[in-house]
Write a structure and sequence with these properties.
- With about 375 residues, the protein is of the alpha/beta class.
- About 55% of the residues lie in helices and about 10% in strands.
- The strands form two sheets. Strands 3-1-2-4-7 form a five-stranded mixed sheet. Strands 5-6 form a two-stranded antiparallel ribbon.
- The chain is globular.
- The N and C termini lie close together (about 10 Å).
Length: about 375
């Protein structure tokens, strides 16, 4: 979804100026800030920081933070670019934790140029649900929510896997707790509070909706070799959907043998079925492509190699174009909010009130 001030016809420099001025104007409207129910103490501001590059990037989960972690590993740790990009995603943030800086007061500044990253709140919430609850990356949180709602296991054709927690259940829970003053997980915390948008001086405002173009522009401004700039630009465009999918599957499959996963998934095939549906929502596999249940049932063996082969076959036999993938993801997003009670929509609008206002996103649910 485009924001109100996404106009590239005037050039990137004017775009940055427009965005920062929009932030500053919104931040000067003190009545909006004073009436906002979400408080700073509900989340901890964390930045990737490089004094060498004179830049700090607010760590916004579900909005390109993994890429920036890799950039800082290359520059600060001296890792070869291709080696850094080959690190499994679930390990990257742990390795890069030493490059992080936290702000401990509203008056503390970065001492470098600052970059804030935003994403449409409706899209970010749905992405967090698919990744953390549907695909069980936060399996214990999913179990706790299911138990609090009196809901049982999610049943697939291959057996139980996960919990009967709907997207509506998830949104109602996280927004209710946030508006009651509870701590907010970084994967869905408002960018306004997580990045201290109105207290920290930012020079760049990136939007996830134009992430590639925005990040390429910033990389060109950094004091690094042309070789690294070229490599980062190439890597940001990605090694192709096949290579990307291989890494995604490896990351997701790494948790399958944990005690919490074994407790809620009767077998690995059941989890693969959930992965397949998740890949459809994320636009990797066409919605009309059936899960290859019989082939895995005959082989009686489910492993990362076989899963990767099946997913890549589905992707390559009937591939989605970039436009089709975007449309399929959009359709999944719209369907997720269709029929959402007005009460819960109002909670979303209140929780992300400052994000909608400062970054120009439409406060109405996607249609």
């Amino acid at each position: 979804m485009k924001t109100q001030y996404n106009d590239y016809r005037t050039g990137m420099k004017d775009t940055w100026t427009d965005r920062i001025q929009h932030l500053q104007k919104g931040c000067h409207q003190t009545d909006r800030k004073d009436q906002y129910k979400i408080k700073y103490q509900q989340t901890q501001p964390i930045f990737f920081q490089s004094m060498k590059l004179n830049i700090s990037v607010c760590k916004v989960a579900k909005a390109g933070s993994t890429f920036w972690a890799i950039v800082f590993l290359i520059v600060e740790k001296g890792l070869p670019a291709y080696e850094a990009f080959s690190i499994p995603r679930h390990r990257i943030h742990g390795i890069s934790s030493s490059l992080s800086k936290s702000l401990h007061s509203s008056h503390e500044q970065l001492r470098t140029k600052g970059v804030v990253v935003s994403r449409d709140p409706y899209s970010r919430l749905f992405s967090a649900f698919v990744d953390k609850y549907h695909l069980l990356r936060f399996v214990q949180a999913a179990r706790s929510l299911a138990q609090s709602l009196g809901k049982g296991y999610f049943i697939t054709e291959a057996g139980k896997c996960g919990y009967k927690v709907s997207f509506q259940d998830f949104v109602d829970s996280v927004t209710t707790k946030a508006l009651q003053g509870s701590k907010i997980n970084r994967h869905w915390s408002p960018v306004y509070t997580m990045c201290r948008v109105c207290d920290v001086e930012y020079q760049y405002a990136i939007q996830q909706e134009t992430l590639t173009r925005d990040t390429e522009y910033i990389i060109k401004q950094l004091n690094i070799s042309n070789e690294i700039k070229t490599t980062l630009t190439q890597m940001f465009h990605g090694p192709g959907p096949n290579k990307t999918m291989e890494g995604v599957i490896q990351t997701m499959w790494s948790a399958i043998d944990s005690p919490a996963m074994r407790a809620c998934c009767s077998n690995k095939l059941a989890y693969f079925m959930k992965m397949w549906e998740g890949f459809k929502m994320q636009g990797y596999i066409r919605t009309n492509v059936s899960f290859p249940f019989s082939s895995f049932q005959k082989n009686n063996s489910v492993n990362v190699e076989g899963i990767t082969k099946a997913v890549l076959a589905a992707m390559n036999t009937n591939p989605l174009s970039s436009t089709e993938r975007k449309a399929q993801r959009r359709q999944a997003l719209v369907q997720a909010y269709a029929g959402m009670p007005r009460r819960i929509i109002a909670q979303i609008q209140e929780m992300y009130r400052m994000d909608f206002h400062l970054f120009g996103y439409d406060a109405n649910p996607p249609t």
